[in-house]
Amino acid sequence: MNTESNSLVSRRGLLRTGAGLLLATALPPIPGHAAEPSEYRIVAAPGRARLAGAGRPETDVWAYDGTIPGSLVRLRQGKRARLVVENRLGQDTTVHWHGIRLPNAMDGVPGLTQPPIRSGESFVYEFTPPDAGTFWYHPHANSLEQLGRGLSGAVIVEEREPVAVDRDLLWFLTDWRLTDEGGIASGFGNRMEAAMSGRVGNTVTLNGRVPQAEAVRAGERIRLRLANGSLARIMALRIEGHRPVIVAIDGQPCDPHEPEGGRILLGPAMRIDILLDMQGEPGRHYGVIDDFYEGLTYRLTQLAYDERPPLRAHPLDAPADLPRNPLPEPDIATADHYDLTLQGGMMSGMGGMQGAGMMHGMTGMGRSPVWAVNGMSMTGDGHARMEPALTFQRGRSIMLAMRNETAWWHPMHFHGHSLAVLSRNGKPVPHRQWQDTVLMAPKDVVEVAFVADNPGDWMLHCHVMDHQMAGLMTVLRVA
After folding, report:
1. Would you call 244 exposed, middle or buried from its count of C-beta atoms within 10 A (0-12, 13-18, 19+)?
2. How far apart are CA 46 and CA 149, in angstroms?
């Protein structure tokens, strides 16, 4: 169990998520568009949502298409997509298509890859997703507040051939810091939080609502897509009485395997696809427990079996493997080697760090950065003239050693690429795991490899958004 503490998370606040779980009603589906699968119009605007549960006040939010989370975007592998984003907020925004290997100009980083979308204006994103899998979209402008007020949504890129399951479910998980009156608490950019765990909330929603129970039937096989859209909350999910099998991480298929210790570790921005053979007893309920933070364990939701007899007598006789995506395999023997070191945080002593773009978007954080990568701090969301920390030759295989010299957890996200995770603290990582967001524990050393085949200037940053805004961000160039 993780021993990290966070003084801003209360047991009462976390347990608020367990209310109303006695009704075995199916969770609401994420709304989708009626447009063709490859063409969407997405509007970012203020809205209202009932985040705190029945009988509680509605919350003023910022939302895509008026829903929390935003409308589910379904794309097809290898088919060109056109997504028009209209900004009806009172400030600039962009959209980053998290985890999708797309052209640099479509990556959604203001100043670095595109001009910001001004209030009242639109931007057209066009790309062809090469990979099937579970991805998501969110802003990369004032991202701490815009994401924290609700701007996020899921992207599913469908495989060319259907996967053999009875149902395909999405659980988009988000936490919020709500006041007793149901509003979103102010205080984005608190410097103390930026130097520690980030803004962890007091309410968790599943597909935009306080979780009720998921209705299931004995004998069915479910593909469950888990996505963590939180600003900072890390989750470690256990499903009582079941043996989930991980089949994809961050959209990329892996060798099917059960999670270590039965806990599915899901950092901010990560996605994990699991297969669940429903072998529970008809009529029974089984808890889904999040026990990442020591002493703050709570029940996220339940699997509620109906009374009908099992759908089939034995588990579905179909392979668990998902079809591989067309990822270029790095040549480890000839790879170029580089190092990235994460530094800073509470009590680290950031004196002497050099800053690039200080105060860019750092509302209320003071004048100096809190974090650094290789001794350099880039604050905010992205802007013009961000010099790269490393430059890779296009087409070369790259070995990258990432060293977390801090006392805090960091989900490190690399734009435009997927990374083969080779080792952690000197031990090989099994199951052929590719990730775009690598969760690093304090003092971790993680080796990853990839082919630098996607040209451009690409962000690498911590997806604890307070950490990114306070300096834990850099640029890697493929030229």
Report:
1. buried
2. 9
- Alpha-carbon span 293 to 130, nearest angstrom: 36
Q: Quote the mean pLDDT of the chain.
A: 89
**CATH number of the domain within which 456 lies:** 2.60.40.420
Tell me whether residue 92 is in a domain.
yes
Mean per-residue pLDDT for 346-354? Answer: 56
| 86 shares its domain with 48 | yes
Q: Are 299 and 345 within one domain?
A: no
Say if residue 397 is in the same domain as residue 267: no
CA atoms within 13 A of residue 165's CA, in its CB half-sphere = 22
pTM: 0.90
Task: Return the amino acid letter for 300.
Answer: L
Domain coverage including residue 413: 332-478
Q: Are residues 152 and 21 in the same domain?
A: yes
Q: Which segments of 314-449 does DSSP mark as H helices, in order?
A: none
Q: Domain check: are 295 and 361 in the same one? A: no
Q: What is the pLDDT of residues 230-287, one digit of tens each?
A: 999 999 999 999 999 999 999 999 999 999 999 999 999 999 999 999 999 999 999 9
The pLDDT tens digits for 378-429 are 998 887 778 999 999 999 999 999 999 999 999 999 999 999 999 999 999 9
List the one residue out of 174, 183, 211, 234 whose CA is nearest residue 6. Answer: 234
Q: How many domains does the chain have?
A: 3
CB-based burial, 76-85: b 16+ in 10 Å, e otherwise = bbeeebebeb
Q: How confident is the model at residue 15 (pLDDT cuts 50, 70, 90)?
A: very low
**H or E element in which residue 40 lies:** strand 39-49
Burial class for 442, CB neighbours closer than 10 Å (0-12, 13-18, 19+): middle
In a domain, 359, yes or no: yes
Pair (248, 132) in one structural domain: no
Boundary of a domain, candidates 158, 184, 206: 158
Q: Which single residue is written with the structure tokens 């209209």?
A: 86
Cα distance between residue 29 and residue 176, in whole Å: 20
